[in-house]
């Protein structure tokens, strides 16, 4: 299908049999339509448009769904379009995405005209999910030396091989206006999750990537000028941390913590200035958490067995099929609905079936992906009252 093509979606509503919550399937079940990564901006500010990846014609492209009308519009065409890391600009006028690991592009949503913001040098490849600062004037990116990139295998097998390869990677800071990039950190290490602290470009974050139980120091901060590299949290024995994210107001970095042999997981938070860490509360075995703007509410996805650990038997736990809501003021949680996603790889993609829940802008519903009806699809669940 061509850029600018439209498709009329037919929504299907159902009721969760256990919580009574209304669930709306937005996308057709016969076509894979996963959402983007959970901390990338996917909704327009008024909550009426939603970015997603659509595999129409057996090729993934980036689409924008007008929620009131149900009309989905194709925004990109061709191949190699990374919907997973795509995001909307703060003013909703543009969509940004990476193409084939080589170009970071901006699409004018009114005209669909594309502009290449940054081209990766030939000896490097773009890696991971690239994240803008709050003003969308700069981009935190990660590049891997092309000669060190593992191409054999797929999914979690490739993930482990890339970790073992100890690639040379570099954290970069891209100026959107000029397209110029500055290297902030260059290491012989598998890295990921580059990001700026919201509303404070002086602090950048990233992670040491790899199987969680083989990474003993995951989360890191560094000043934008490349100075003051510091570890966010020292892991306890047999502790792993994962899927860190900034509370959108910039007040703290939050993350999931778990220990080998423990069914529960824990919500953790780090102060970006003092590096004081807080173990906020135990929770069911969620893989991803995302907060509302001020961090007073979190939503999480109960997980299946982990693919991104080395000792799978030692980290086995009872799978949890629920979307959970957490109140940080009362330290309580409740179930929203079942997501029933398989967490299986989809055509070698490790992320497409992950629920990756997040709030709608009005904080009344939760968006998530699930392959509960066959292929990855988009769902909205009302929050319980």
From TrEMBL:
Transmembrane segments: none annotated. Keywords: Lyase. One of its GO terms (molecular function) is lyase activity. Residues 1-384 form the Oligogalacturonate lyase domain. The keyword Calcium does not apply. InterPro entries: Ogl_dom (IPR027946), WD40/YVTN_repeat-like_dom_sf (IPR015943). This is Oligogalacturonate lyase family protein.
């Amino acid at each position: 299908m061509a850029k600018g093509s439209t498709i009329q979606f037919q929504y299907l509503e159902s009721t969760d049999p256990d919580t009574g919550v209304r669930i709306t399937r937005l996308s057709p079940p016969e076509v894979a339509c996963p959402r983007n990564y959970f901390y990338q901006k996917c909704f327009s500010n008024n909550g009426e448009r939603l970015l997603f990846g659509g595999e129409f014609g057996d090729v993934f492209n980036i689409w924008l769904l007008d929620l009131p009308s149900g009309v989905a519009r194709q925004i990109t065409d061709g191949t190699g379009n990374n919907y997973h890391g795509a995001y909307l600009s703060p003013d909703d006028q543009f969509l940004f995405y990476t193409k084939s690991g080589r170009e970071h592009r901006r699409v004018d949503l009114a005209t669909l005209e594309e502009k290449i913001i940054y081209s990766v040098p030939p000896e490097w490849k773009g890696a991971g999910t690239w994240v803008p600062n709050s003003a969308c004037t700069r981009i935190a990116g990660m590049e891997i030396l092309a000669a060190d990139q593992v191409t054999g295998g797929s999914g979690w097998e490739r993930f482990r091989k890339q970790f073992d390869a100890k690639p040379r990677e570099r954290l970069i800071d891209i100026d959107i206006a000029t397209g110029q990039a500055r290297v902030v950190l260059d290491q012989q290490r598998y890295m990921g999750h580059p990001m700026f602290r919201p509303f404070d470009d002086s602090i950048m974050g990233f992670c040491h990537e790899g199987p969680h139980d083989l990474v003993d120091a995951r989360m890191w901060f560094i000043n934008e000028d490349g100075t003051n590299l510091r570890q966010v949290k020292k892991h306890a024995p047999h502790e792993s941390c994962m899927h860190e994210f900034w509370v959108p107001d910039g007040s703290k970095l939050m993350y999931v913590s778990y220990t080998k042999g423990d069914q529960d997981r824990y919500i953790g938070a780090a102060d970006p200035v003092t590096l004081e860490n807080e173990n906020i509360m135990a929770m069911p075995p969620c893989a991803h958490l995302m907060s509302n703007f001020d961090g007073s509410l979190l939503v999480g996805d109960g997980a299946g067995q982990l693919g991104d650990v080395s000792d799978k038997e030692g980290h086995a736990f009872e799978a949890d099929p629920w979307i959970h809501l957490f109140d940080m003021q009362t330290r309580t949680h409740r179930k929203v609905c079942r997501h029933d996603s398989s967490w299986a790889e989809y055509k070698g993609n490790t992320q497409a079936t992950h629920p990756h829940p997040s709030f709608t802008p009005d904080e009344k519903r939760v968006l998530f992906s699930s392959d509960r009806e066959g292929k990855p699809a988009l769902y909205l669940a009302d929050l319980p009252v």
